[in-house]
Design brief:
It contains ten helices and 13 strands. The strands form two sheets. The chain has an eight-stranded parallel sheet with strand order 8-7-6-9-10-13-11-12. The protein has a five-stranded antiparallel sheet with strand order 1-2-3-4-5. Helix content is about 35%, strand content about 25%. It is α/β, with parallel strands linked by helices. α2 packs across α3 and α2 crosses α10.
């Protein structure tokens, strides 16, 4: 089993983002990836996410159990089975929740590399205080220098604790409120919210917002007004139009259409799309199976190299 501590030793956030970029530079089209299968169960939701890329194939079986928080247990559970691509022989078993906590920030970091300016340190506002918030702080810091960070969370103690962790990494940080988005260059949302977290009118025209908290069509972290005034980027159009409530709710309200998506991650990474100027940039991630496989394969390669 490749567990969370081993993943931290084997792959940095920057290396995980590089693994994703390598797949896209290699010509992989995320639109061709198999869709996620979701089954409702009494405790929440079971997810099945298969993929095949180059030398490897794999499948993640994950559970999303909202009630686990009250029990002191992780909300996301599961395992990842990595297979040899040509023969489909099992090669390794990975902690599925830990893999998700590594690959989701890596996807966001890849978008941040392409959507934010690289000529000055960024002012970050981070929504969330759970494992994804910590992972995103580290991944963003690996992608861009930070002038400061503001942590916004429902749990005041958790927000102060994460701000303290940011300070331990050399980033001036404090707990704040949703209105702090007005002064942000980069806003990252990694929460379980089902309704908008902040007033989108406050986001500056040159700012970037990243939202990763939901893959459900009726849950969102951003409001309709913000999405309508933004240049929207996604991992894949098909996945976003199936699962991204941040886009589907405004579409249902008639504020935007399917053609509102300005580009996808592959187009950004390969330079086929240039980030829009004069408008906020919005990257909405729902998480895809090819991303899990790309990072799982990189972890396995690193483990073999260190053996």
């Amino acid at each position: 089993m490749i567990d969370a501590p081993a993943m931290g030793r084997l792959l940095t956030p920057a290396a995980a983002a590089d693994a994703l970029a390598d797949v896209l530079h290699g010509g992989f089209d995320p639109e061709a990836a198999p869709p996620r299968t979701s089954v409702a169960v009494p405790a929440g939701e079971l997810l099945l996410m298969p993929a095949a890329l180059g030398p490897y194939a794999g499948v993640k079986i994950a559970g999303v159990a909202p009630g686990n928080a009250a029990l002191g247990l992780p909300r996301i559970t599961g395992s990842y089975l990595l297979l040899d691509g040509p023969t489909l022989r099992p090669l390794a078993l990975l902690d599925g929740a830990a893999l998700t906590e590594l690959r989701t920030p890596a996807v966001s970091a890849l978008a941040v590399r392409r959507l934010t300016p690289d000529d000055r340190p960024l002012r970050l506002v981070l929504f969330g205080t759970g494992p994804q918030a910590y992972g995103h702080l580290e991944a963003v810091l690996a992608a861009r220098p930070l002038a400061g960070a503001v942590v916004v969370g429902r749990d005041a103690i958790g927000a102060r604790t994460l701000a303290g962790y940011a300070r331990s990494l050399g980033v001036p940080a404090r707990a704040g409120t949703p209105d702090d988005v007005a002064g942000a260059d980069l806003v990252v949302c990694c929460t379980t919210a089902r309704e908008p977290l902040f007033d989108g009118a406050l986001v500056a025209p040159g700012a970037t917002v990243v939202a990763v908290g939901s893959h459900e069509p009726d849950a969102r972290e951003t409001d309709t007004a913000f999405v309508a005034r933004s240049a929207v980027y996604v991992e894949a159009r098909g996945a976003a139009l199936r699962e991204a409530g941040d886009l589907l709710v405004p579409t249902a309200e008639g504020a935007i259409g399917e053609d509102h998506i300005a580009g996808d991650l592959a187009e950004l990474v390969t330079g086929r799309r240039t980030p829009a100027a004069g408008r906020p940039r919005f990257f909405k991630s729902v998480g895809m199976a090819w991303e899990d496989l790309a990072v799982a394969g990189a972890l396995y390669d690193a483990a073999l190299a260190g053996a």
